[in-house]
Design brief:
The chain has 461 residues and is mostly helical. It has two domains: 139 residues, Phox-like domain (PX Domain), CATH 3.30.1520; 225 residues, Arfaptin homology (AH) domain/BAR domain (Substrate Binding Domain Of Dnak, Chain:A, Domain 2, Up-down Bundle). It contains eleven helices and three strands, in the order H-E-E-E-H-H-H-H-H-H-H-H-H-H. Helix 8 packs antiparallel against helix 9 and helix 9 runs antiparallel to helix 11. The longest helix is centred in the last third of the chain and has 81 residues. It starts with a helix and ends in a 6-residue tail after the last helix. One of its GO terms (cellular component) is endosome membrane. InterPro entries: AH/BAR_dom_sf, PX_dom, PX_dom_sf.
């Protein structure tokens, strides 16, 4: 007989039209989280298709209030994981973590993997911190569910699931020591301020646009915009449905009270009317139960998916910024090269053919007023410009390589996000459908029991 944990883990699967896991059925045993179907397995993998090396299944449960009755009280959560990834020391791990540990994990994953779509954490809910309700069972359960969904999204990511930071988060018994070590000695070298960083404040405008946009990313952005608009519209619609359901809950309760009062007045049909009143009360309770167990979780998941999509949008914006860096640096290199050629033409006596513009003319006049228009000064300027041109050429090459690599990684991230979105939409809509079916089945049973009783009512006129 399976335990509760095994039931939860085995229900976590990732199904999509194309196999998201790179599984060798002959060499690797199948397990939870793997797509068991071989459909599409013989299709060649593209250069931007993600590749999974195994599964990582996580669950966040059992919130406990630690250091109760003290000013340092906090809530810890039990994080359990099962995996077959080779970087983990055991196939099953468990550890207790608090919310600040999740914050540390998320912040450093964003810093260490800037091209990956790292999901956002739930809000701080400052009002609960002020009123003290953050230790209420309802708040802790809601927070647990949001953290569980956050960790699930990271565990499904083929790159993030193999990060050393996530491995330490899941299995380290000295997590606080590891956090200090990670801050003091990050996994990659700290980037030194380069020419691009020095120029970014003056060259790169927050409102600048990419001059040569890639059609692939334009289409991605349009798809993300349509998806976000659909989520916002759906959230607004279901909030209205929730409000109407609450109104119906109240109306059916009031109708039940009225029917019960009518039973006291009509002594001949008191018993049938009481049964009818009880059915109305039960139907009102079913409405309330559906709102709490189906509609509210659906709205929470919908909002969470919207924040996940916003994280994906941020990666697309960062990719545009990388391309913008390359374009701005290329333009700056062209301007410096033209200035160097102009000075060379002036020294050689061919200034008229150097394309002298208004800015260069004014610059020469200012240099003449300062007494810096002699050939010696021009030669010194040319020497400095040659050094700057060499630095800019290296910076442009690095920016081009960075932009291309970031674009390739972004294409891969979009595939991963598409898999995650499809899996979550299927889970979310399945839960919604199950809740609606359960509500209507229970309502039909209640009304079918009361209909024969109502039909037996006979009133003499």
């Amino acid at each position: 007989m399976q335990t509760e944990d095994e039931d939860v883990f085995d229900s976590v699967t990732w199904e999509s039209a194309s196999a998201p896991y790179d599984v060798d059925h002959a060499g690797k045993p199948a397990g939870p989280g793997f797509k068991q179907s071989t459909a599409g397995a013989e299709e060649p993998q593209g250069p931007h298709d993600p590749k999974w090396e195994g599964y990582l299944l996580t669950i966040v449960k059992d919130p406990v209030k630690e250091l109760a009755e003290t000013k340092d009280a906090y809530v810890s959560y039990l994080v359990v994981a099962r995996t077959n990834l080779p970087i983990f020391s055991a196939q099953s791990t468990s550890a207790r973590r608090r919310f600040q540990d999740f914050v540390f994990l998320r912040d450093h994953l964003v810093r260490d993997f800037p091209a990956c779509v790292v999901p956002a954490l739930p809000d701080k809910h400052r009002l609960e911190y002020i009123t003290g309700d953050r230790f209420s069972p309802e708040f802790m359960e809601r927070r647990r569910l949001e953290l569980h969904r956050f960790l699930q999204r990271i565990s499904r990511h083929p790159t993030l699931q193999r990060s050393t930071l996530l491995r330490a988060f899941l299995e380290s018994t000295e997590w606080h020591v590891y956090m200090h070590q990670h801050v003091a000695h990050p996994p990659g070298p700290e980037p030194t301020p380069g020419l691009l960083d020095n120029l970014s404040d003056t060259l790169l405008n927050a409102f600048a646009r990419v001059r040569k946009p890639d059609d692939r990313f334009l289409e991605m952005r349009e798809n993300v915009d349509r998806f976000d608009d659909g989520l916002v519209l759906c959230e607004r619609l279901w909030n209205r449905i929730r409000g109407r359901a609450n109104d119906l809950t109240t109306d059916y309760h009031d109708l039940a009270v009225a029917a019960q009062g009518l039973g006291f007045l009509e002594s001949g049909i008191t018993d049938p009317l009481n049964h009818f009143s009880n059915t109305l009360l039960e139907f009102s309770a079913l409405f309330r139960h559906k709102t709490q167990t189906t509609t509210d979780p659906f709205l929470v998941h919908l909002h969470s998916l919207l924040t996940y999509s916003n994280a994906n949008r941020s990666v697309l914006k960062l990719r545009d910024q990388k391309q913008l860096d390359f374009e701005e640096l290329s333009d700056y290199l062209s301007g410096v090269t033209l200035e160097r050629d102009r000075l060379s033409a002036v020294i050689s006596g061919h200034a008229g053919g150097s394309g002298l513009g208004l800015s260069a003319y004014l610059k020469d006049k200012v240099d003449a007023m300062r007494g810096a228009d002699d050939d010696r000064s021009r030669v010194e300027k040319m020497r400095k410009l040659d050094v700057k041109i060499k630095e800019l050429q290296d910076a442009v090459t690095a920016a081009h390589d960075t932009s291309d690599a970031f674009s390739d990684e972004t294409l891969r991230e979009q595939r991963i996000f598409q898999y995650a979105k499809e899996a979550e939409m299927k889970e979310m809509l399945s839960n919604l459908a199950d809740g609606e079916v359960e509500f209507y089945q229970s309502a039909m049973e209640e009304w079918e029991r009361i209909i024969p009783i109502i039909q037996r009512i006979r009133v003499d006129v």
